[in-house]
Amino acid sequence: MAYTALFWPKLVVRKDYVLRHDFSLENLAINEAGHSTRQQIEAMLNYNSLENYFRRDGEVEAVADERARYIGAIMVDMLDAKLRRDMPDRQFRIELIDDDDDDDFAVTFWQV
Questions:
Q1: Cα(38)–Cα(15) distance, integer angstroms
Q2: Average of pLDDT values for 2-16?
Q3: Runs of H (alpha helix) within the chain
Q4: Are the beta carbons of 78 and 109 closer than 8 angstroms?
Q5: pLDDT for 20-47, tens place per residue?
Q6: Is the dihedral of CA 15, 17, 22, 28 positive or negative?
Q7: SS3 47
Q8: What are phi and psi of 34, to 5 degrees?
Q9: pLDDT tens, position by position, 83-92
């Protein structure tokens, strides 16, 4: 059940932001106070790290990285389908973050 929220999240519109339903009001206020753009705020609040979901202790790093890339690419496609279906009047950018330097794999999205 937990993976359904990861791959097909509930979305809300708040102050014209499109966000995952479990976003933090506190983090929204902090980001707004920092005078970030709507796109920056959405990208930050919709950021979803894959590190804790798809890595196993003692696993060869290259195998774990490849798994995260594969799952991340699927998540991008699923989010694209979800956003097009739920918000057909809005356009989005969905990004797979693949940072080898930080071993960071994540998916995020924002309105364009």
A1: 10
A2: 89
A3: 2-7, 25-33, 38-45, 51-54, 61-86
A4: no
A5: 999 999 999 999 999 899 999 999 999 9
A6: negative
A7: coil
A8: -80, 5
A9: 999 999 999 9
